[in-house]
Design a protein that fits this description.
three-stranded antiparallel sheet, eight-stranded mixed sheet, about 400 residues, 17 strands, globular, alpha+beta, 12 helices
Length: about 400
């Protein structure tokens, strides 16, 4: 460990993860606050990509043979291993694409095409590879040509003139991945000397002999989420890149939040990322999984917690998700608590019953702040103390 930091992440079981966050009490006594998260599977640093693939993307692969849409995301802090997981192992700057999830999906697709169950369909395989950078879409298989995202008369979102390359073998797919990865936008950050600065979307399509789309698998290597504090020393362009990345990741989270709450309006148009991936979330035959990558060091504990909370929100998306029953407005603190948790940003809180007076606000104790922030031991949707203060201050100024 070059930075000589202590690992603060442990895996007590195959489906639980613990983050031991170092903190200071008011009297400067040091202590650890343990955050526990539950997921379908957790993997340590000794697990290879093929094991990760076996429990994430592989179980949803057959969806595309049944005329569905499958999607696999890699999400996490800059430098935590997203591109390593999706694309393959690195040796210096050289990447072995045979060992990434992209290639593993391609290999299984061609094996299933030859299986007796699907051979009679006579499907053709093709690939596309594009990136979303700065709110714009660039075709990585056409020398980063800029593309438009439009919605047709059937409410289907299309990337206009996106190059779709027919492939006949796994080797052909690897060549496509290699060509696209070579021109993907990257840059240097405080966390990573060779950081991906765009969302890369690699898609494998199955088409009938007449060219009709039968199924699609989208494999997405998201750009690294990062805090503004981590980019203070960066130049203006890098800070703008970081802001665009975080904006699109927030839009993705808001779409997931809206769907998990069964809201009528889902803000897919908030970013190009959510607009392009709309068909990955809607429909009975859409299947999605997320791979959250972590940096286990003490210096990255805040980013690690943010990643786990984000992934925990994604986990809520699924069949049967119901919105919590609304509380009565006369229960002011409980009503404010639910509004904070369900809406996510202070700008949406103005509908809260104005019976909460300034005098009542002044009476809010530290215990109330803990409730407003959702700081229960195992609650993934936590807001820190300063965010709660900012929210209450904005409410006070508005009223």
């Amino acid at each position: 460990n070059k930075a000589k930091t202590v690992d603060v992440v442990t895996l007590p079981s195959k489906d639980h993860i613990l983050v031991h966050e170092p903190k200071l009490k008011v009297d400067l006594t040091k202590f650890l606050e343990n955050h526990k998260f539950h997921f379908d599977y957790t993997f340590d640093e000794n697990v290879s990509n093929d094991v990760v693939y076996k429990y994430t993307a592989q179980p949803i692969l057959r969806t595309i043979f049944d005329q569905g849409v499958a999607t696999c995301f890699a999400y996490g802090q800059t430098g935590s291993g997203k591109t390593h997981t999706m694309g393959g192992d690195f040796t210096g700057k050289q990447q072995n694409f045979n060992l990434g999830i992209y290639a593993m999906v391609a290999k299984d697709v061609f094996e299933l095409l030859r299986a007796q169950q699907y051979a009679q369909l006579e499907l053709k395989v093709s690939c596309s590879f594009f990136e979303i950078y700065g709110g714009k879409v660039f075709d990585l298989l056409a020398k980063r040509a800029k593309r438009r995202v439009l919605e047709d008369g059937n409410n289907v979102v299309n990337v206009v003139d996106l190059k779709e390359t027919p492939v006949l073998s796994v080797a052909s797919v690897l060549n496509v991945i290699k060509d696209g990865s070579a021109v993907r936008t990257s840059g240097q950050t405080s966390a990573n000397a060779h950081s991906s600065r765009s969302h890369a979307v690699f898609q494998i399509m199955l088409r009938t002999q007449r060219g009709k789309l039968h199924g699609k698998f989208s494999l997405i290597d998201l750009a690294g989420n990062e805090r503004g504090a981590d980019t203070n020393s960066a130049n203006r362009a890098t800070r703008i890149e970081g802001a665009e990345i975080n904006k699109s990741l927030l839009a993705l989270k808001e779409c997931i939040r809206a769907m998990s709450n069964n809201q009528n309006h889902i803000p897919f148009r908030a970013s190009k990322l959510t607009q392009v991936l709309r068909d990955s979330f809607i429909g009975d035959k859409a299947r999605t999984c997320m791979i959250a990558t972590l940096a286990p060091g003490q210096n990255s504990v805040e980013c690690t917690l943010n990643t786990l909370r984000y992934a925990d929100r994604v986990k809520e998306l699924g069949p049967g998700a119901k919105q919590a029953a609304p509380l009565e407005p006369n229960n002011d603190l409980a009503y404010l608590h639910q509004s904070l948790r369900s809406q996510g940003t202070a700008h949406h809180y103005l509908h809260i019953n104005r019976q909460i007076t300034n005098r009542q606000m002044e009476g809010v104790t530290d215990a109330h702040f803990g409730m407003l922030a959702g700081e229960e031991e195992e609650d993934p949707e936590m807001y820190n103390f300063h965010q709660a203060v900012d929210m209450l201050q904005e409410l006070r100024e508005t009223w």
